Amino acid sequence: MTGPSTGMPVAGIVPAPRREPGHADLLVRNAKVFTGDPGRPEARSVALRDGRVAALGDDHDLAHLVGPGTKVVDALGRRVIPGLNDSHLHVIRGGLNYVLELRWDGVRSLGQALAMLREQAGRTPRGQWIRVVGGWTAEQFAERRMPTVAELNAAAPDTPVFVLHLYQSALMNRAAVQAAGFTRDTPDPRGGQIVRGRDGEPNGVLLAAPSALLLYSTLAKAPALDEADKRTSTRHFLRELNRFGLTSAVDAAGGFQNFPDHYATVVDLAEAGELTLRIAYHLFPQTAGQELADLKRWTETVRPGDGDEWLRLNGAGENLTWAAADFENFSEPRPELAAGYETEFESAVRLLLENGWGFRLHATYDETIRRDLAVFEKLAAEGLFPGGNRWLFDHAETVSPGSLDRIAALGGAVSVQNRMSFQGAAFLDRYGAEAAAHTPPVRAMLDRGLSVAAGTDATRVSSYNPWVALHWLVTGRTVGGTALYPAGNLVDRETALGLYTRGGARLTGEQDVKGTLREGCYGDLAILSDDFLTVPEDVIPDIESVLTVVGGRIVYATAEYEGLDEAVPPVTPEWSPVARFGGYQSGARQASLVAEAVAESERHRRWRVARGAAPDAPPSFVDPCFAH
Q1: CA nearest 155: which of 174, 170, 139?
Q2: Which of 628, 617, 583 has its CA nearest to residue 237?
Q3: In what order do the strands lie in the sheet with 391-395?
Q4: Which uninterrupted H or E stretch holds 294?
Q5: Three-state SS for 21?
Q6: How many CB atoms lie within 10 A of CB 149?
Q7: Number of other CB atoms surrounding residue 258 within 10 Å
Q8: Mean per-residue pLDDT for 184-210?
Q9: What is the DSSP string of 216-260?
Q10: Which of 415, 493, 414, 420 has the alpha carbon at shortest distance from 462?
Q11: pLDDT for 445-496, tens place per residue?
Q12: I want to staple 508 with a disulfide (CB 3.0 to 4.6 A). Which of 57, 280, 385, 593 is the partner?
């Protein structure tokens, strides 16, 4: 971690001689505060009291707020921002599984990734799996390729290994194929493919063609945590998100996330006052053919807004009916949705509107968006839509200008995620540079006055690191450096920060209390390791928070502030990959490993060229086995 100046983190203010009701609980001083408030965009100090912002100003302006009980933090000239809000994060599901996962997020070389896997194989007890579940892509590796099944077998000959690659494919070693029960007689599920060798036996490759349900259902066969460990896992995942300055998230539910069962852990943590991230959650019908029954039951038992500022129900989605879902595997052709899905979809929307429920919709392709909009326009003609309810499209990579106009006319919003950071090269290969240049058209959305929020769609496709997403928004580049967008589809850094703060707050109706540092707003902020507004573009993905505050509580602290945050229990089980490796692998820790991997990769390529086994050209970032 680096900061613009050095010195003691707490210094320079003498407390008032007696405690007064107006004293702050926490004062952050000597900072470059970006407030996000147009009325007062900058400050040097921010005071928090009772979990909210009490005052902003220069250091001397707020000195009188320091009392005997005030905790004073010197930011040492660093940048302070409102807490980040991921508007589309599978945080509940991610928390229940976090300590079981070997994260390759941020790993810069395949050699390092496989070394982590080999070491974890020696730590994992019999009966457990090693799971690499999203947040990475072959393009991020110096070797510019995926691992092979043979490499997984060599790294872990006896321990089942499941490696998920985006929503496109999964690799399994021999032990995992056996543990999952796949044989030559196992049929391919609809929308998925179990790849087989010449002998007809599964060879360890699963393909989403284009549905990811095969990948998810296979992963679901691995052992789950017990209730106590789910609680610990969730606390550590929330702490990991706090590490990057996240203070809020909108949970988009997702496959295999049942209500109320899988929500019990966050409810328990909320009741105990142990959440360190504010969560607004959605409800997602899980069983095809049962969606309307689920939605009806929920509208009769719970309502949007139930909960408090830490945990609250926000609405339905991201799917309302399975037939309307368009899976976004950009290595496969766009899925053709069933004719006539609109009948059931309209019934679901009508039910929600009549009961005062807002919703969000997974929609990758404009073809799907146009069909959904036709349903909304029909209901609007009856005076039902939107009826004062918040609604939005998620993803919208290929949304057209005409559809954006229709969304604006119906009062909708859009939540965009940096899936193109990880899948942009695959999209380029299939659709070309002209189509990729406005996928998604973020600038066009903003120019129409649409409410736009940003997020990641972590943890199974993109990484949960928000700075990777912010880098994508301002540079238009993938994690491997591929340029996708012209200047006209980029946003400046302050706009991008607004999409990650105020944007998410608008989706949950909390824009008056969240997303800005203004008197009366929630006391959510982060002190950054590097100044997002001024650092070189290539530094942005490596930004972290050195101190994160949620509701006036210091929930994450490092560098000069080590030990100021709340304690969390040790990671359990002890063999957890997180206990050994942590979560996101910071690029700052890996420079020498990357250089070594690049050199090794080039030597291997030259060896193959000399023997006629490869063309004398730079290698593709995709293993040809996966170029479907």
Answers
A1: 174
A2: 583
A3: 84-89, 246-251, 278-283, 311-316, 359-363, 391-395, 413-417, 451-455
A4: helix 291-301
A5: coil
A6: 20
A7: 14
A8: 95
A9: HHHHTTSPPPPHHHHHHHHHHHHHHHHTTTEEEEEE---TT--TT
A10: 420
A11: 999 999 999 999 999 989 999 999 999 999 999 999 999 999 999 999 999 9
A12: 280
Residue 453's alpha-carbon distances to 40, 107, 412, 473, 515, in angstroms, are: 22, 27, 12, 11, 11
Please give the DSSP secondary-structure letter assigned to residue 541: G
Element (H, E) at 194: strand 192-196
Predicted model pTM: 0.91
Query: Whose structure tokens read 């189509």?
Result: 435
Res 6: pLDDT: 35
Average pLDDT of 381-392?
97
**C-alpha to C-alpha distance for 73 and 106, rounded to whole angstroms:** 30
- The CA distance from 205 to 169, in Å, is 7
Give residue for tokens 């012209």.
Answer: 486
**Confidence at residue 5, expressed as pLDDT on a 0 to 100 scale:** 37
Higher per-residue confidence, 37 vs 18: 37
**Confidence grade of residue 329 (pLDDT, cut at 50, 70, 90):** confident
Residue whose structure tokens are 């896992």:
233
Compute the distance between CA of residue 47 and CA of residue 605 in angstroms, rounded to an integer.
Answer: 57
Question: Which residues are registered as beta bridge partners of 57?
Answer: 45
User: Which of these, 482, 499, 494, lies nearest to 437 by C-alpha position?
Assistant: 482
